[in-house]
Amino acid sequence: MKDKNTEDPERSALSRRRLVKFAGVGATLAAAAPIVGAGVAFGNEDDDRKSGHSGDSRRRSWRAGDHHVHSEYSGSFDTTKNPPVFQKGGDAVYPIVTNAIMAKNFGLSWAMCTDHGGPTHSKVNLEQAYPDLLRSRVLVPEVLQFWGMEFDAPALDHHTLMIPHHSDEAQQLFELESRFAKLDPFPADPGRDTEAKMVEFLKAAKGMPRKPLVIAHHASRSAPGLGVYGQDTPREFRNGNDAAPDIYVGFEGAPGHQAGPLNGGDRGGYGNYPTHGGFDQMTARVGGLWDALLGEGRRWWITATSDSHVHWTRGGSDFWPGEYSKTHVLARQDYADIMDGLRNGRIWVGTGDLIRTLDVTASNRGNEAAVGESITIDNRGRTDVEIEIRFRPLNGENANGDRPEVRRVDLITGKITGKSDDRDSDTNPTTKVVARFGKRDWRKQGDEYVIKHTLRDVDSDMYARVRGTSTDEAEPLADGLESPWDDLWFYSNPVFVKVR
């Protein structure tokens, strides 16, 4: 594990004062929301770079968001009464509107409160939390606020359940939570907590006219070792993705609770086996589970979230939404298009605002594809594939008052060999880092840095993905108590190459 680093006391004190001020402002504005209304003016940088992606690129730009945030509706239940009595603030403490205000402050365009379930929680969501969400949408219109929950998935750990934005969204969530969430029945129903019930849930979601999204949270938090899994297993991911490939689309590459070390805790809350560079082992290990799923040709994406409950300056282990981790989606500022971007992998993720934009494209003889997309090449002719990586560094300071710099960018490729007969497989032996780029290897073009690399003689289906870091680590090391601000990474989702 990494050694604990000594923090600069002056910088640490400045950061603490800044974040305490933010926390106080957010709570004050939430309390005064009926008076303040939508006139609250926090900065929200919206980068309108016109991406090179195909499709409706003229109206799409990278929009940062967070699909895993908790409000005071992650509470507790008094089960001595029938029906149980819900009490707000038992786990997370901030009103929905406070989270939205802080998301806006830290540059997010979209966000989602995903509160814990529990006995009869489907009614709490419908009758108490949803009206507060509607109020928050009015008060903070600059942030698109999705409706959904942290689904207590049958037989697995928690998952995002994101509902499409429409007039019956509250009823849609109520139907899914009341029918399938394992903790919703009272008295408890052990029959809810089976993998068969999870698959039934995914098939029901797939059959809905407005399709939700399901993304696994902190997938290895219960894993006792490297490649030894806990509540979430490779087999369950495969079975769920097979049942509903356009619903069950990925897991958190970087889990929340990243501020844990600032209060002497574990990064991500991973107390058994640690994260690596803030990323779950399923993502951070080259040739690991993520690569195994991609090597089967699955469209399986990674995201990064805050899992915000209580800010670290108030004794918690969390950053505000967008303060440290961001999920960037190529989309218009539109509920449907952001959800489409999440569903189809137009995503890159980063921590500490190490960079502002990231574009990865693969091209061959005039054909081009970007993250989440596929390019088809003809192996009867020239089969070289050109990879272009473009990124924008941060122009200014991040939320910690730092000016982070990219020290290295890695290009990672793997072969796509088809579905594995081993449902428990968590490796792709064809995956490797094919090139590492330092500052001398990229050129400046406007306010972007550009890297070009040629993959020679591509003769089989493959994918390419990119990661970068502020560190000098060849591979992300297991995390200890170092400051998360000193250990920053970004990851793209893959671009696919199909050989005809």
Automatic annotation (TrEMBL):
<feature type="compositionally biased region" description="Basic and acidic residues">
    <location>
        <begin position="47"/>
        <end position="71"/>
    </location>
</feature>
<feature type="compositionally biased region" description="Polar residues">
    <location>
        <begin position="73"/>
        <end position="82"/>
    </location>
</feature>
<keyword id="KW-1133">Transmembrane helix</keyword>
<feature type="transmembrane region" description="Helical">
    <location>
        <begin position="20"/>
        <end position="42"/>
    </location>
</feature>
<dbReference type="InterPro" id="IPR016195">
    <property type="entry name" value="Pol/histidinol_Pase-like"/>
</dbReference>
<keyword id="KW-0472">Membrane</keyword>
<dbReference type="InterPro" id="IPR006311">
    <property type="entry name" value="TAT_signal"/>
</dbReference>
<protein>
    <recommendedName>
        <fullName>Phosphoesterase</fullName>
    </recommendedName>
</protein>
<feature type="region of interest" description="Disordered">
    <location>
        <begin position="41"/>
        <end position="82"/>
    </location>
</feature>
<keyword id="KW-0812">Transmembrane</keyword>
